Write the structure tokens for this entry.
Amino acid sequence: MKIKPAQLDDIDWKILRYMQKNPEAPVAELAEEIGLSTSPCWRRVQRLKAEGVLRGQRVELDPGRLGLNCSVYAFVKLALPGHEQMSVFEQNVALLEEVVSCERVTGVNDYLIKVVTTDVQAYDDFQRHKLMQGGLISSVQSHVVMAHTAVDSSLPLGVAESASR
């Protein structure tokens, strides 16, 4: 099901660009940056939150400083990829703390998950004792990240803005 994009004007796009790069900025700073007074800017931010465009603020943590030195992208193929099995898999994987993202994909595999653990041994334990439990999965193709070369979780707002016009 395709989600209908929100109707945004030029000021909304300015707000999103600034907040994406400066999520902790006070509303007064944001308002000054985009050329609005504080109250209208605050109302716009509240509307963007209510419409689900802004889904909260995040703190970026350094995985290495926390001992989380192993990131793995794993392609998962279900044994029987029916609606019920997909729902059960999605519910199960949502409970696994090591899984930081799960996406249903096209092609030979059914899902792409990103798993973060302390090391390769911890990933092996995770896969064998948590992920593969229950008999839902027929295969997992794991790809260990060797180095993070670009870290930016920003969305390409220019692409979205162009598409909305």
Remarks:
- The CA atoms of residues 62 and 132 lie 28 Å apart.
